[in-house]
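Chapter review: from sequence to fold.
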Amino acid sequence: MIKEIRQRAFKLAQTIIDLTGPRLAGTKASLDAAKLLKERLDSFCTKTELDSFTLYKGAFLGWIKLLVLAYLAGIILLWLNYPLIAFILALISILILVLQFFFYLPIIDIFYPKKEGKNVIGYVEPSDDIKQQIIISGHHDSARIFNFFIHQPSLYNLRVTGSIVFVILLTIISFIMFFITAPIVELILTIILTAGLVLVLQMWFFASKKGTPGAGDNLISSTMAIELGRHFSKHQLKNTRIIVVSFDAEEEGLRGARAFAKHYKSLLSEYPTTLLNADCVYDLNELFFLTSDINGTVSLDQSLAQELVDIATQEGIETCHKPIAFLTGGTDAGELAKVGVSATTLIGMPWDNNTRSSVYHTPNDTLDAVDPSVIDASIKIFKHYIESKDNNVSA
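The token string follows.
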């Protein structure tokens, strides 16, 4: 049974990749993928929906080039002896970085092209009255290729974190230079900051305009959710509604999940609701559940994560739970947790910038990089959890 669910998930994911290729949010490919996923849901769900929302293509990573431009302008201004203007520019760029990336707020979105995104939703109703609902989810949009993960990936942290550090130094030093009157000190500080251009200018080429195949990140999670939904349409639960969701625009700052949380607020509060999200499930030896999200700014349900770890142990699967690492981004669970949903995300790779999967955000993110055994394990854990929760609520 587990093997059959996994095989169907892999087959569907490969079909979509073959038909659409890379699926950057806001492109026809991503919209086509959403339609294909809905067609599969139509074959067994009680009801299906394509939920449209607006996104601003490219905005989420827009802070990177703004940071580069602000730093370059700041250095020129320091050489021209305008430290206060340099300080203001650097401070604005840091504030945009913090709000746009640390907190995922849409600070600069309106300056980017407006596009359409589509979340895919399917409902599998229980045999008796609904007492709770469980969402199983992934995202079908694929990421932009991160050039730093292809060229000298061992220097990723130095190049990214180092660049941000230099912008922070520019902010602090330009402010101090506005008050000091020692020309030799000003010259030395300006030379040091100018040397930082070696790191900062590289950030202009951080992300490619091209997308990845997006198999492990994260189409396989969406197709796994769909095939689990199919299973529960055949093996009907008694009092638990299953909602299968494939989010769009996760790679654009979780905009699809945010739209879903807004558009379906009443649905999410109608019954006790749990979200079982999966993202970047590549490696059986690296499975863990998140207890926080969006760079640690949002708390997920630790008791849910622990319950899933306990179930994994019963199934003979080694896993754990832990908070998300700072500066590694976020998952769709974060947006649903914000509106009160009990949520966690299952991750299947090292989740820090030094040891992430070698295919992450690269053209090599194909199904060959996804270990079938990790998908089997994920299915076992989610299936066991759903069946036990239904048994408990029906008792």
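Two observations follow directly from the output. Residues 62-103+150-207 form one domain. The chain has a mean pLDDT of 96.
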